[in-house]
Amino acid sequence: MAYISSYKLQQDSRTTKVGKTFTKNIRMHWQLLLFIALPITYLIIFKYIPMVGVQIAFRKFTPTGGIFHSEWVGFYQLKKFFESYQFERVLTNTIYLSFYSLIVGFPIPIILALCLNAMQSARLRKTVQFIIYIPHFISTVVLVGMILQLFNNSIGIYGILMTAITGSQPGDLFAKSSTFIHMYVWSGIWQSMGWSTIIYTAALSNVNLELHDAAQIDGASRFKQVIHIDFPTILPIAVTLLILSSGNIMSIGFEKVYLMQNQLNLSASEVISTYVYKVGLTQGSSDYSYASAIGLFNSLVNMMLLVIVNAFSRKFSDSSLW
């Protein structure tokens, strides 16, 4: 009994010490806790609490029944999507556009950052940075308007030049599924490549200049210095950003696709986000449960891809998110 009493006293003493330490840390770092309180509150209110509404994907939603009292149908909505004639098309288009954008667009900011870092003239470097940063601040609506005007087959620069060269009016690029894909991807790269170089440029600023001096003494060219000194420095950051990008492979931006979309290029431009919008809001009888099920499927696939890519990165490299 004496041993048990002694053990309880020790446990109570440890609990008291932990409680005092916890209270002391709160008093010492209350500014930092207050600083992170707002974003945490935002996440809870707008990200976690709305997850209760995910159950609408497993119900046959009716306005009278609401989220909690509508008929429970299980995986009926997901099965309906998998058996739909639109499933293969929207899934293929989404994956194709995402991988195309990732494969082409991901290395370009890295190359730009390495080139900017290799420039000897500070004035030229700042000028180039200013020019390539500007497109990031153009809104999606304005960007699509610019694309429509520039590549108009009658009054746009494309139409005027092709008419002058060939002597006949060219075809409408927006009426072809194949050209829509390239215009969507490359216009996005043009808009975002400059801004994406900021992270890599910041990482390159931490490179020890003594390494470059030693490489020059050893006779290494500027290209070899970039390959053996600069590139390994930004490689961990590049891997981390690649992992994060893999978690958005199924998430094609809605606005730009929808604005560039028409009945003639629908076979290539109909992606999951636009399809969810149409079946959930714009059709005669809006099917909220069906649209929610498709969105849930999209999010689950993104999460699985993120976990898989992170696992591969952790296994084959030293960089991972967890």
The CATH class name of the largest domain reads Mainly Alpha
- Give the integer mean of the pLDDT values: 85
Under CATH, the homologous superfamily of the largest domain reads MetI-like
- Going by CATH, the architecture of the largest domain would be Orthogonal Bundle
Could you state the order of secondary-structure elements as H and E?
HHEHEHHHHHHHHHHHHH
Give the uncertain stretches in residue-range form: none
Q: What fraction, in percent, of the residue positions are helical? A: over 70%
CATH-defined fold name of the largest domain: MetI-like fold
Q: Strand content of the residues, in percent?
A: under 5%
Total strand count, please? 2
Count of runs of 4 or more consecutive helical residues:
16
Number of domains: 2
* Structural class based on helices, strands and sheet pairing: mainly alpha
* N- and C-termini, Cα separation: 46 Å
Question: How would you describe the shape?
Answer: globular
Main sheet?
2 strands, antiparallel
Radius of gyration (CA) equals 27 Å
Q: Widest sheet: strand order? A: 1-2
